[in-house]
Design brief:
The protein is α/β, with parallel strands linked by helices and about 750 residues long. The longest helix has 18 residues, at about 1-20. Bound molecules: 1-deoxynojirimycin.
Length: about 750
């Protein structure tokens, strides 16, 4: 009787679930049933915009294109969409994609800068602004966020990442997904996010773009994958493959990554696009003989859409006819693409409503300015900043002082320099009446090798009471395929700084760059240093506010700054090794003719020592903060219990200011050697001068664990340490035991 009842119940559940099929899936079923094989393959083809060319129109009419990237003219977009919706046999809309990475028209700081804010809300706000602006021209898909953990500042794409830490990339990536996608994808101001580049791209050898990576599975899962998993959890609608091979298998042909992990383990039901031509590039990688084999590998690996590779459109049909690929494979792929289009509401609202007021709205500019304020990191301050009335004349020099295009940073295809406010403009507009501003660029661009202007800038510095030196890198020196082996300030900027120092005037150096730079000597020469990354449209007003004290710096480094390139990779979450650095004897201290074993025999560089220039998490304020002793809720916790760590932070300085409080953990003894510290939480708190707040962090077995060689994640019982600290190097650890 009992068994019969259970059986009946099961049947009823089955019946209800059949009847109540997700309406989107039902629509996909109905559409798929009508599609020819050619139409299915057409959906898997993404082309770059060619305006209203006859060829493009015909291909759309014939159902040979599923998506177009890099078309931004709303009239062209609507025109092409009209052909897809009205003239193609099944009226399936196109989806228009674009690299809207840190803004469409209103440009926010580069993602590395946004991460320096340690304020995910600014990243979410930036992505929301970008979505509103881009969607107004019909772009409903962005190729962001990039959540590649990046531990090599030579790699130009570090600019697009949120730095070296998995947790930071996870938190910021999720915030950006939320911002791009809004409350619902079907809202016409939402754009589909794309978590990229799946996976391990940041580990490219010698920081050269597109290069080989070797990543053991435990490291892949502990370091490189968590931000992608967080993107899935945040609802990212799409993923993009990376260009690199990973342990010999390029991502676009990597079944383990794209099917086993992304689909099977994480249950991702969105769409996976290749990178530009990356399926075709399986040939150049040397894993496919020809395009047909590349297409086979791509489809077997679960890559749904071929971005500008032409291999799916050219070869999938014959692969099916030859029985090498099952049509059901293709159906799954097309299902993922159609699901995205339905979720975006493109079948109901295929067209964009042109809206010339969508760009540069006051609230967008205000959010961009706030993000730029929060992104700047004060590296040094010999009591000179903020400049508050003690000086009469100020020299504004350097190649980045008035370089509208350069302050946008990488990936700002649609930005308009006329809308950017440079530091020189902001300072002149805001403080030109109060101070005598003497502007002299010295160098016309960051790589300029013509020294004649430097003499003029030095003459300007001599006339002034204080010098503001805007140094850095032009936008073109970072980003995709823009990697550097030398991380000094380019061109004659070091010489420029030495000449400014020689005037005896205090020099405030503001660095606008796409990556950490090796500027140790310039920092020594400067009285204060603000590292501002590329701050976007509103970099100028933001920096003016910071320099003159209307705002207080609150950024902290999302990546370790090396002293020398030879230290790379240098990151805070390194292992202890069997010979941790101690007894540092640097090259200048080694006595001549000394016996070999007189040195420390520990892990450091003779010339660089064991410390970076600045650690991860570092950043100063105009105020000062004191941290009380940390207290723990228990000395021992069971696997199902939560540990709370708390500490009181007091603003002991004169300024109301924000402080980024960081929470780190170390697993002291485990079956695999663990990092010396791992970031597990952070909180940016606002404290009025004199105010105190208690900051709490919680941790339990679910995030004390790590990946093991048998592909399982769990926390091992034993002793752990926790820190609540200002950065990744300071603070006193407390111990607790996980039972
Ligand atoms: C190549 C880049 O790797 C990727 O990040 C970008 O989204 C695509 N090109 C499209 O422009």
């Amino acid at each position: 009787m009992m068994r019969r009842n259970i059986l009946l119940l099961l049947m009823a559940v089955l019946l209800v679930s059949c009847v109540k099929k997700d309406p989107v899936e039902a629509k996909i079923d109905a559409l798929l049933a009508q599609m020819t094989l050619d139409e299915k393959i057409g959906q898997m083809n993404q082309l770059t915009g060619m305006g209203l060319s006859d060829d493009m129109k015909q291909q759309i009419k014939d159902g040979k294109v599923g998506s177009i990237l890099n078309e931004v003219d709303v009239n062209i977009i609507n025109n092409l969409q009209r052909i897809a919706v009205e003239e193609s046999r099944l009226h399936i809309p196109l989806i228009f994609g674009r690299d809207v990475i840190h803004g469409y028209k209103t440009i926010f700081p580069i993602p590395l800068g946004q991460a320096a804010s340690w304020n995910p809300a600014t990243a979410e706000a930036g992505a929301r602004v970008a979505a509103r602006e881009a969607s107004s021209v019909g772009i409903r898909w962005t190729f962001a966020p990039m959540v590649d953990v990046s531990r090599d500042p030579r790699w130009g794409r570090i600019a697009e990442s949120c730095g070296e830490d998995p947790y930071m990339n996870a938190v910021f990536g999720a915030a950006m997904v939320k911002g791009f996608q809004g409350d619902s994808l079907s809202n016409t101001t939402s754009i589909a996010a794309c978590a990229k580049h799946f996976a391990g791209y940041g580990a490219s050898e010698s920081g050269k773009d597109y290069n080989t990576t070797w990543i053991p599975d435990v490291q892949l899962r502990d370091v490189y994958l968590p931000p992608f998993k967080a993107a899935v959890d945040a609802g990212a609608a799409t993923f993009m493959c990376s260009f690199n091979d990973i342990n010999g298998v390029p991502s676009s042909g990597n079944k383990y990554l794209n099917r086993d992990i992304l689909r099977d383990e994480w249950k991702f039901d969105g769409m996976l696009v290749s990178d530009w031509g990356s399926i075709d590039q399986l040939i150049l990688h040397g894993v496919s003989e020809n395009q047909k084999d590349a297409a086979l590998k791509g489809i077997e690996a679960g890559v749904d859409m071929d971005m500008m590779g032409f291999v799916y459109i050219s070869h999938i049909k014959s692969l099916i006819e030859e029985g090498k690929v099952k049509e059901s494979f293709i159906d799954e792929t097309v299902r993922n693409i159609l699901r995205l289009k339905f979720r975006l509401g493109l079948f109901d609202h295929p067209y964009a409503t042109p809206d010339t007021t969508a760009f540069y709205k006051p609230e967008a500019l205000a959010a961009a300015k706030e993000a730029a304020v929060e992104s700047a990191v004060l590296l040094k301050n010999n009591d000179i900043l903020p400049l508050v009335g003690q000086y009469k004349s100020i020299a504004v020099v350097g190649p980045m002082a008035d370089a509208a295009l350069e302050q946008f940073g990488t990936w700002s295809f649609d930005a308009e320099p006329a809308h950017a406010i440079t530091p020189l403009k902001a300072i002149t507009d805001m403080y030109g009446k109060q101070y005598n501003i003497i502007a002299e660029p010295g160098l016309t661009f960051s790589r300029d090798s013509n020294a004649t202007g430097i003499a003029k800038a030095v003459a300007a510095a001599r006339k002034a009471d204080v010098v503001l030196f805007f140094a850095g890198e032009e936008a073109i020196l970072s980003g995709e395929a823009h990697c550097r082996a030398d991380l000094d300030l380019p061109g004659l900027q070091n010489q420029f700084m030495s000449a400014l120092k020689a005037t005896g005037k205090p020099v405030v150096m503001v660095v606008m760059a796409g990556r950490p730079l090796t500027i140790e000597n310039q920092i020594k020469d400067a009285s204060a240093v603000l590292f501002a990354f590329h701050g976007g449209t509103m970099a100028g007003p933001a920096l003016a506010d910071l320099i003159f004290g209307k705002a207080v710096p609150s950024g902290k480094l999302p990546v370790t700054f090396p002293r020398m390139v030879g230290q790379i990779p240098v990151y805070y979450a390194h292992k202890n090794t069997g010979r941790p650095a101690s007894n540092i004897v640097t090259i200048d201290k080694i006595p001549v003719g000394v016996f070999q074993t007189s040195l420390g025999n520990t892990s450091f560089h003779l010339d660089a020592g064991d410390k970076p220039m600045y650690p991860f998490g570092y950043g100063l304020s105009y105020s000062t903060f004191e941290y009380s002793k940390v207290t723990l809720s228990a000395k021992t916790i069971e696997k199902n219990q939560t540990l709370t760590a708390e500490c009181t932070v007091t603003n002991t300085g004169k300024y109301d200011a924000k402080e980024v409080v960081q929470f780190y953990v170390r697993d002291l003894v485990a079956s695999l050697a663990r990092p010396v510290r791992e970031l597990k939480g952070f909180d940016k708190v606002f404290l009025k001068a004199g105010e105190s707040k208690t900051v709490k962090f919680e941790i339990d077995a679910s995030n004390l664990g790590f990946w093991h060689q048998d592909k399982t994640y769990y926390a091992e019982p034993g002793e752990f340490q926790v820190w609540i600290s200002k950065d990744s190097q300071s603070g006193e650890p407390l111990n607790f035991v996980l039972k």
